[in-house]
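Blinded run. Sample ID left blank on purpose so nobody reads anything into the name before looking at the predicted structure. Input follows.
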Amino acid sequence: MSELLLIRHGETEWSRSGQHTSWTDLPLTARGEEQARELGPLLAGRTVALTLVSPMGRARRTAELAGLTRTEVEPDLGEWDYGGYEGVRTADIHRTRPEWFLFTDGVPPGPEGHPGESPEEVGARADRVLARLAPRLQADDGDVALVGHAHFLRVLTARRLGLPASAGALFTFETGAVGVLGTEHDRPAVVAWNTRTP
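Blinded prediction complete.
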């Protein structure tokens, strides 16, 4: 069976400052572009049959700089809609909601068009992506790369492993890093996580 390569976009100003970023389409920083280029050697030895990218420019630019030039935009790969918490840091949220936790509590509604998402809604999107990819992974004709965002890819990982969406909390994911989901004894398994070129 083919492996699923999960690639988090390179650093942006808000990922560096810890601000929740979903629909705000910030460019990569110079360091983020460097991180994306450094992914090239990690991916060079693989046959990537399909690359799906988030609609956000930071994900598309990461794919391009990593050498993944034949990409297809997949709307369901967008980051968790943070609603009213877009651009806000967790530390700031905790000043008024000290027990708040994204993976169990979701977010309040934001401006028009951004109602926010619950963990279950993000999990449903992840399930749609995984259902789409199932035949490609079974075909074993090359790996599938997904270039996207930390929280969404963490939820997708949980769902691939048969866990609830909230279990995405168990997988931290750094900018410009790769996670690899494969199988062991025909069961989904984490093969590598937060991998970068040394």
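Unblinding after everyone has recorded impressions. The radius of gyration is 16 Å.
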